[in-house]
């Protein structure tokens, strides 16, 4: 079993993780006509906004309660109520997602009680708008946990609790935060190929796919409709993707009685086989010919690409679900994980990462552990480590701000796994260091060779 190494230093050097409220806002951005609201200072919101804009290169409708010194001391319920009412009157959203920050969490306020009071007192003014709370202090957790809390909050607040008639063609899909726009589109296409209707929560492929509306819209544009969230109880089954979505799947089962199946990853031949087999069982239909052809293409890519992976040393820095997805892919291709760094040690999926140890830390830890690796895998903040170590970097995750198209790279399904094999193989081929005549000449540097072969004790004598 993998050993989890906890944080051992007081300061973070080039942080790896993004905060919980950012993760919650990310999930809310996948809902149509939604406005995420940070309950905290303007600075907390500005920092998250900058990361979102740099990653997606899109307009992000992120708002704040703008807590000042007095409100922080006296309590922020009035600021929260004022912000919600202003958003309702000015932007007319169908959903306001409240993400708490460390500033208000450290005071220990009863946010759930405050929101219940606001809903009751302002029921007429807030008609037609759902308000969902995600308690996400910055000082703990990470983007993955924030995303999960927001999805759980939407399910527990919005989903209709009255018994609903099951639709045998309708399935709920709960994607992990690490799935890109292209990943979710691939999952949707695969499910629809079986004649099933997927309801994806949240659906960033509809809201953050780069579509430009014909006019300015103050809320999110596209994504999961609130009406579809409300009727999730009519789904016949839930497909949860990533260990981080287990809590959301369990919440939907508790609220509406919808059973679920958890898929830890959808990258790789066997994981996708399991996913497609589940779809065939749910639909009662055979696997379509076009999907069988994709599997055949992946099998050929495995044959073509495994020569480039064998014996390669890989260093990965990512959130738990993403770390598991990437590490199992590389090990399955014949590579070795020599450094695995993550953001939090609470996820049970870390015990299944195919590495001797997983370090909870930052890019400072990552740079130390990655010495001698053939490839670094992480988001854009790993670029300094890659430059200092002179090791190529494959950019994945969030944020990726120094390359275009991060959201349109697909790494799931048979097609996505095939493309990932080609992407990594091309990085290896582009960074092959051909041997020089001097390096191959056994008569040069004989003293250095002798020193390497002679035991230290023998050299001393």
Automatic annotation (TrEMBL):
This is Nitrogenase iron-molybdenum cofactor biosynthesis protein NifN. GO terms for biological process: protein-containing complex assembly. Keywords: Nitrogen fixation. Pfam families: Oxidored_nitro (PF00148). This protein may play a role in the biosynthesis of the prosthetic group of nitrogenase (FeMo cofactor). The keyword DNA-binding does not apply. CDD domains: Nitrogenase_NifN_1. InterPro entries: ChlB/BchB/BchZ, Nase/OxRdtase_comp1, Nase_comp1_CS, Nase_Mo-Fe_CF. GO terms for molecular function: nitrogenase activity. The gene is nifN. Pathway: Cofactor biosynthesis; Fe-Mo cofactor biosynthesis. Belongs to the NifD/NifK/NifE/NifN family. Residues 19-428 form the Nitrogenase/oxidoreductase component domain. The keyword rRNA processing does not apply.
